[in-house]
Amino acid sequence: MSIAAVGKTLWVLGILAWYFIRRPHERRARRVQVVTHRRSPSERIGLAAALLGLAIVPGFYVATGIPESADYAARPWAVAIGIVAFVAAMWVFRRTHKALGRNWSITLEIRDRHELVSSGPYAFVRHPMYTSFLLMGIGQAFLLPNWLGGLAGLVGFAVLFFLRVDEEERMMLETFGPQYRAYMEKTKRIIPYIY
């Protein structure tokens, strides 16, 4: 098996891991009442961009090899970095879902008896789910030796993050007030100690 094929296979396995981590939380979330939500056009655009960049565009590339003109030589060191980034992404992704428990939702929502979570990965950053998406995008860029398929994940993540994070923080401030403001002062957004 070529290095490029190994990278593609590992990307597919990472996406399957993402799905199997997320699925039980989606099912449980349907049973918890939503008190308020912020579903907006910009949020829908951000979620669509993330799906397109982290799943559809790279999936199309992996399945078809198109656009072949954007391919470059795969390197073992790049695949190794991609594996580390994707494993880290899945670890953070799983820990984030576990820490959120019944508070998790795919859209900007406050649920019945919603609690401010500040343990687990939330002790280090306010938005570890975005941290996991950033790590997925980095992993994808190293696993898929194609300028379009590889970098689409970082673009999708960036669109989601910049369209959504400010609105998410406003919603949390409205819900938790001084408690969330104090939490913001102790933590960074997505990269511990940096940003």
Automatic annotation (TrEMBL):
How does the record say this protein sits in the membrane? Multi-pass membrane protein
Which protein, by its recorded name, is this?
Farnesyl cysteine carboxyl-methyltransferase
Q: Does the keyword Protease apply?
A: no
Query: Which Gene3D superfamilies does the entry mention?
Result: 1.20.120.1630
What GO cellular-component annotations does this UniProt entry give?
membrane
**Localisation per UniProt entry:** Membrane
Tell me any Pfam family this protein matches.
ICMT
Task: Give the UniProt keywords, A-Z.
Answer: Membrane, Methyltransferase, Transferase, Transmembrane, Transmembrane helix
The UniProt record lists the keyword Repeat: no
Name the domain of life.
Bacteria
The UniProt transmembrane annotation reads: 6-21, 45-66, 72-93, 133-163
GO biological process per UniProt = methylation
- Any one GO molecular-function label of the UniProt entry: protein C-terminal S-isoprenylcysteine carboxyl O-methyltransferase activity
State the organism named in the record: Sinorhizobium sojae CCBAU 05684
